[in-house]
Amino acid sequence: MDKIIVHGGAKLTGSVRISGSKNSALPILAATLLTKEPCVISRVPDLSDIHYMLTILSELGCEVERASGTVTVKAENVLTEAPYDIVRKMRASICVLGPLLGREKEATVSLPGGCVIGDRPIDLHLRGFEALGAAVRFRSGNVKVLAPEIRGATINLRGKFGSTVLGTDNVMMAAVLAEGTTVIDGAAEEPEVEDLANFLIAMGAKIEGAGTRRIIIEGVKELHGAEHDVIPDRIEAGTFLTAAAIIGNDVTITRAEPKHLKAILDPLSQAGFLISTGKDTVTLRSNGTGHPLKLETSPYPGFPTDMQAQMCALLSTVDGISVITENVFPQRFMHVAELKRMGANIELQGATAVINGVGKLSGAPVMASDLRASAALVLAGLKAENSTEINRVYHIDRGYESLDEKLNALGAQIERVKV
Ligand code: EPZ
Fold first, then answer.
1. What phi and psi, each to the nearest 5 degrees, are found at residue 253?
2. What is the pLDDT of residue 288?
3. What are phi and psi of 112, to 5 degrees?
């Protein structure tokens, strides 16, 4: 198990290429189960979560080939039960349920267990499948969905915390081969949902309104193979821009999609960082100081929960009182205790973090608990005096492609150490 050591204080300068989106590639790879024909997906990031998804597809009987960032999947014959040993490692495995139900009219997946970022039920996914005519059964830790036929329906997928991203993906993938028309109200509007819909349309699906709260899917008899380029990862992009803000000086992200980043760029410019955008680039200039902010997370197009931890790290070093309220995963504050070990002054009041910016952070041994929390610790380490030792970096490798190498190419001083 690796750990990384961040030697603080080195300014960041230069440009960094943004990888394909993890949260888009995962459901798109699952959607290849919807056809017997080969699908070619490019710009697939090299991440352990992607590796898990490809293993699940192989275990389900697919032929899977990978050549650097391009993956070819041929799902000629498929099984309908995903193996527990892999599924337990990654919650997003749940998104094989929809395509298998759509194609084979049945699917079994182990129920996702606990998650450090908070309660993550799948009731909305199941509500959607039931509306499409499926029966839902729970046994020995598995959920099985089955239906003699899938019939289009009108479904509201809005839950207590708003829309559901993978729930919208799953129901959309089950509905593309249904009899008749499905209307999803309260749909997630994330760019990753729209990217999945664009891939399904390239396979021959009939979908309107993806990227809005109402998605209309007219079922078709069958889908064919297709090629698709995954969109850039907006959370990786936001993480690099926040890294530039926290330590300075001048970083340009390339191969990005600026229009997907508005909810991240607005608060960064409100905090006083200079931002300029090009067709597929964004540059942030910083002298390492900024203004305090009041922020709330919410589903897209709101400020993303997946950027909350990184923003906590930044605002811990900004003079003044900042306030961040987490509305999507109210318990998602595992990074706070570790940032406090580095000298941050943060008080948690329910789902709100009240941050009193400190002049300096100091390096310390800290523990990564989840993907975005670990990115926040890396950012804090860039600013901190001395060195920060981050353990359990496998969390980072789940969602960031060579984060330490990319940061070192911008001037950071990060070592990866085998333990
Ligand atoms: C996706 O998870 C992302 N994962 C998460 O990113 C991201 O944090 C989340 O969307 C929100 O943006 C992937 O795309 C693989 P949700 P998802 O269903 O779809 C509640 C990262 O760091 N809910 O939109 O699982 C749920 O508890 C990861 O890359 C129900 O109540 O999240 C939460 O409070 C972490 N019932 C809210 O909705 C349901 O059936 C939003 O969750 C489903 C969700």
1. -95, 140
2. 75
3. -60, 140
pLDDT at 98: 98
| Known catalytic residue at 95 | no
Confidence (pLDDT) at 236: 98
CB contact set of 162 (below 8 Å; sequence gap of 6+): 298, 299, 327, 328
Q: Would you say the CB of residue 205 lies under 6 angstroms from ligand 1?
A: no
CA of 51 to the centre of ligand 1 (A): 20
Residue-wise pLDDT tens digits, 286-332: 877 899 999 999 999 999 999 999 999 999 999 999 999 999 999 99
Instruction: Round to whole Å and give the CA distance between 39 and 226.
Output: 5
Residue having the nearest C-alpha atom to atom 18 of ligand 1: 164
Instruction: Work out which ligand 1 atom sits closest to the CA atom of 159.
Output: 31
Reported as a single tens digit per residue, the pLDDT across 383-403 is 999 999 999 999 999 999 999
Q: Is 44 in the pocket of ligand 1 (CB under 6 A)?
A: no
The catalytic residue among 62, 95, 115, 312 is 115
3-state secondary structure of 106: strand
β pairing state of 365-367 and 135-139:
unpaired
In this prediction, residue 117 carries a pLDDT of 87
DSSP, collapsed to helix, strand or coil, labels residue 378 as helix
**12 DSSP assignment:** E
Quote the mean pLDDT of the chain: 96
Structure tokens at 290: 């900024």
Distance CA(63)–CA(76), nearest Å, equals 8
Contact 192, 6 (CB under 8 A): no
The secondary structure of residue 210, as a DSSP letter, is: B
| For residue 419, pLDDT beyond 90 | no
Determine the Cα–Cα distance for residues 400 and 236; give it in Å rounded to an integer: 7
Q: DSSP secondary structure string, 111-151?
A: PP---TT-----HHHHHHHHHTT-EEEEETTEEEEE-SS-B
Q: What separation in angstroms does the CA of 326 have from each of 189, 283, 364, 401?
A: 19, 27, 26, 26
DSSP 222-270: -----EEEPPB-HHHHHHHHHHHHHH-EEEEEES--GGGGHHHHHHHHH
Of the candidates 286, 254, 252, the residue with the CA atom closest to the CA atom of residue 269: 286
